[in-house]
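Hallway conversation turned thread

IA: we were arguing at lunch whether anyone had actually written out Catechol 2,3-dioxygenase-like lactoylglutathione lyase family enzyme end to end. Turns out nobody had. So, for the record, here is the sequence (138 residues) and right after it the structure tokens. Reply here if something looks off.
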Amino acid sequence: MDDTAPVRQLRIVVEAEDYDEALAFFRDVLGLPEQASFAGDGGARVAILDAGRATLELANPEQKAMIDDVEVGRPVAPRIRLAFEVDDGRTVTARLVEAGAELIAPPTVTPWNSLNSRLATPADLQVTVFQELGDDGA
């Protein structure tokens, strides 16, 4: 990696109306380790969760529509959607639904050979959970 890169980290800041529910879901259920948390005046609270390697995926409207069609079968994604790569897409999807996420589309093998599911989660986020299947299609 180029140590002279101008950007060192991607951090997505999400306002969560029910902070405790969102924190429990993403930290305790999805398993994003807490790097830091802070409290301020007037009840202000924030937690910084480690989501592994970050990328910014830019898609034109046609690509966004195609992904919705493959993963869900209809247009449903908001302008911003989070995607988390996991080792076992079916197990993680089931665990998230059990914890209260709404299943929008079950794990589906995509044309790019990953297993993707779509969920509505706390903090009004739409999430794709994906597992890279590699050459074997496991």
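OS: looked through it. Strands lie at 34-39, 45-49, 82-85, 102-109, 114-121, 125-132.
IA: good, adding that to the notes. The chain has one domain: 19-132.
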